[in-house]
């Protein structure tokens, strides 16, 4: 009798959810693209691979086509794998929002740049773009040379640490910490106006929290909840790590006079000038989240891109030799500078091909529909999440024949000049395109060209287990190489 009553109660609680789910699914058939069925409340989440969500999405695209719908928990979601459709969608004002997720609206509270939307996003993006441009982050700006010198200082620091590591030319070195330190300090100067020593405890804590947070978020970006037990502890770490990071930022902010040219200094001046106004977005919480977004986005994606690039040229020595020959032919004994980027088309093509083959943000950054709109034959309702599946775009065999092959020639025309391909979207596209794209391109070019001019890079024989893919990745928000140890042999002799 007790069991029967429990079953009756459970069924009575479940039926309203089931009916609600079925009614919404039936109604959506008229406007949404086709997609897989899911369960009430959790939708399709139980079938997603938490470590490789981008592969789960890609497999669904093979069944349902270049645009399909999927229920992600309580959120109706559209996944797009057609580059033209992604470009069209993300140039629409109606798709500049963020989906209502626990991560974006609960943890990050809609602050910063990545998770903000509406008037706050527009005001803060305009401010940040102006601030970064005034520090030289533009193709033509008086301070561009100063920013170039800052990046080259980081390159020099990285090469010095590689050279000082005794095993770098024999058994190899895990050089990711060197890149994290030097690129991270470029971002520190831009945002906070200061640098950290390599072994500074505060710096080690900041980088640890950032690295672990990126690893743990992964598919939790889409989940946005703490309901499923296996995701509860990681979300708690993210919340705790965020607060510890912001406390460090608050300490750095207290040390500012407010007349500095870095992002924090510019923000504090703007905040003071608007104190008498109402409705502006220049509050203390916004500063902390803005700094975290600029630092994290500037470091994580650039670091991942360089790690993949150096790994790929180690795995493909023929490509590496072509790059080195181009560097010798064009530059001779001179060190690379930003003005040389247009003179090195094969290097640029090799970087682009590495960005294609291992998309560092495989699922892109999801957008949210902020007002009902039409995309092709489909009507999207406010609150729908839209996922630009960049991995599927970059691995589409109809766009890239034999997509699993590393071929820089895809980006060269018949006479060897660099050829832009619109389907390549490493920085996403549209109105919310990555704000730091120009800085990332500067860093990637200067690190790639300078290091390959000085070193020959190889993969240690004992780094990759037999039968394993040396280009296997580990995915959080960003996709990183699983095997990170490389041999650096000086070419000076």
From TrEMBL:
One of the GO biological process terms: xenobiotic metabolic process
GO MF annotation list: heme binding; iron ion binding; oxidoreductase activity, acting on paired donors, with incorporation or reduction of molecular oxygen, reduced flavin or flavoprotein as one donor, and incorporation of one atom of oxygen; steroid hydroxylase activity
Spans traversing the lipid bilayer: 6-23
InterPro entries, A to Z: Cyt_P450 (IPR001128), Cyt_P450_E_grp-I (IPR002401), Cyt_P450_sf (IPR036396), Cytochrome_P450_fam2 (IPR050182)
Keyword Membrane annotated: yes
Cofactor entry: heme
Intracellular or extracellular location(s): Endoplasmic reticulum membrane; Microsome membrane
Binding site for heme: 434
GO cellular component labels: endoplasmic reticulum membrane
Keyword flag Zinc-finger: no
A Pfam family per the record: p450
Principal location class: endoplasmic reticulum
Superkingdom in the source lineage: Eukaryota
Membrane-topology annotation of the record: Peripheral membrane protein
Keywords: Endoplasmic reticulum, Heme, Iron, Membrane, Metal-binding, Microsome, Monooxygenase, Oxidoreductase, Transmembrane, Transmembrane helix
Gene3D superfamilies: Cytochrome P450
Matching PANTHER family: CYTOCHROME P450 306A1, CYTOCHROME P450 508A4-RELATED
Function: May be involved in the metabolism of insect hormones and in the breakdown of synthetic insecticides.
Similarity-based family: Belongs to the cytochrome P450 family.
Name of this protein: Cytochrome P450
Protein source organism: Laodelphax striatellus (Small brown planthopper)
